[in-house]
Each structure stands twice: as C-alpha cells, then as structure tokens.
Design brief:
This protein is α+β, with helices and mostly antiparallel strands. 16% of the residues lie in helices and 19% in strands. The chain has one domain.
C-alpha cells in the first residue's frame, strides 16, 4: 500500500452553532424544506446528495464552490488549523 499526504489547502468554513440559525452553505430554500427535507442540511456535489447537519458540525465548500459538506468537530480539529 502506498502512503499519501494531503496537499495543504486553505479553506473557508463556518460552524453550525445553533439550531435554526443559517450558516453559509446551508440550504435555505423553502421548496427544499417542504418537499425534500425539513431538517438543517447541505447539498453535496456527489449526486446532489442531501446531508443532514447537527449543531457543532463545520460546513466546508466543495471544490466547485457551490456545494458543501459537513465535517464533525473532532475530525475538523484533527484535519485543519486556523490561519
């Protein structure tokens, strides 16, 4: 098995800190909430998948800048450092 190191990259991320408070990257579409999902969520680039958010999750943009994915706080802390 080969070993790989993650390429250093600077990201912008926002933490979802309070239920009901929008964070950058969260879906805020009324039609989405009424037809598809009534929980806080983000849309990913992977087949338009909807991923639910929990308070404390970090929201990170996908490389396309239009889709997002959540990251649990402990994983975020091990993976990223503040610049």
């Amino acid at each position: 098995m080969n070993k790989y190191r993650k390429i250093p990259v600077v990201i912008e991320a926002e933490q979802y800190i309070k239920y009901g408070k929008l964070a950058k990257g969260m879906c805020s579409s009324q039609t989405c909430y009424t037809r598809v999902c009534d929980e806080p969520h983000v849309h990913t680039i992977h087949n338009g998948q909807i991923v639910l958010l929990e308070v404390g999750d970090w929201i990170i943009p996908e490389p396309d800048g239009e889709h997002y994915y959540p990251c649990k706080p402990d994983i975020f802390e091990m993976t990223y450092e503040k610049v």
